[in-house]
Automatic annotation (TrEMBL):
Species of the source: Kitasatospora terrestris
Gene3D superfamilies per record: Glutaredoxin
Location of the Glutaredoxin domain: 70-126
Alphabetical keyword list: Membrane, Transmembrane, Transmembrane helix
A Pfam match: Glutaredoxin
Transmembrane helix keyword on record: yes
Name of protein: Glutaredoxin domain-containing protein
InterPro entries, per the entry: Glutaredoxin (IPR002109), Thioredoxin-like_sf (IPR036249)
Keyword Coiled coil among record annotations: no
TM regions (residue ranges): 29-50
Length: 142
């Protein structure tokens, strides 16, 4: 669980160190901008950007009942973030599974990706799609 926060925490710490250096140099405006950029990057790479994750078994059960896609993801994945941001408000309609928190989810991803944990992997109606076009996923969420 702690590894999902390593990158965001490192970004905040680096931003704080660089900001302190700018403040010592007498550049408070530069320091404020620099800190804002690093905090924004930390927020975007944190798991807080994604909808609440559920277990793979629960996601598959819900998907079978309502037909919505199951999105397997992991924190720090740029492609997962791209998918999440491009889905916008519709992202909450999908069932999200964090493969770093759910071993069954990681196993499901490996099963459809030749043993690799390639994410995002979206499963719709039993068919798996690795790194699909966000527009295609949006269509499945209607």
């Amino acid at each position: 669980m702690t590894r999902v926060w390593i990158l965001p925490v490192l970004l905040v710490l680096c931003g704080a160190a660089l900001t302190a250096g700018r403040l010592r140099d007498g550049s408070p405006a530069d320091a404020a901008v620099l800190l804002a950029v690093f905090v924004l990057l930390a927020a975007v790479t944190s798991p807080l950007v994604f909808p609440r994750s559920i277990g793979a078994d629960e996601a598959q059960r819900r998907s079978a009942a309502d037909g919505r896609p199951v999105v397997y993801w992991r924190p720090g994945c740029a492609y997962c973030l791209r998918l999440r941001l491009r889905l916008g408000r519709r992202a909450g309609r999908a069932h999200w599974v964090n493969i770093w928190r759910d071993p069954a989810g990681a196993a499901a991803v490996r099963a459809v990706n030749d043993g690799n944990e390639t994410v995002p992997t979206v499963v719709v109606a039993g068919g798996a799609h690795t790194n699909p076009d966000p527009a295609w996923v949006r269509e499945r969420l209607r």
